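Much of our argument rests on the idea that a fold can be written as discrete symbols. Part of our work consisted of pairing the sequence of a single chain with a tokenised description of its backbone. We regard such an encoding as a compact summary of how the chain folds. The amino acid sequence and the backbone structure tokens for this protein are reproduced below.
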Amino acid sequence: MPLKLNVGLSKKLGLPEYGSLGASCHVELELEAGLLQQDLEAFQRHVRRAYLACSQAITEELARQQTGGGAQTAAVPDPTTPPQTTSSPAIASSSTPPAAYRTNGNGANGNGHQASPKQLEYIGQLARQVKGLGVRRVESLTANMFHKPLVALTSLEASSLIDTLKSAKAGDVNLDDILNGATA
């Protein structure tokens, strides 16, 4: 009997005028039955990869909703393939209207929050801590992941980059794959 791994993650952001924006991701994987008894480290890798995939999918979905992409449910990928950072596993959005229709009461919408200076500073610190990356290569990583320079990232994109760098620092993600255009 196969071992089933369920990983779920939800995130909700507060918006002006008592609004909110939310996304959740839930992934179910079938693993080898004896994995917990025979290779706990491999089991933990599967958990971390599924969690990272959900975290990045949620960050991308919230960023898409904030830029006016609307609230739609993404297609569910084949559960037998490894999680990919470029596609979103089943994401359910809140019932909040698309960003183009949300306002803060004075007609201005809440889109495009730039990455904070603290986020950018932390990205630089992490880049120096990841073997073989450094501050210069983080620009290439940012371009491959988000198709824009580091300084143009939104706060949600910066958060996703920070999660990726933390996973790379822990050895869970191979940044060379992302830098060379492959999926994680």
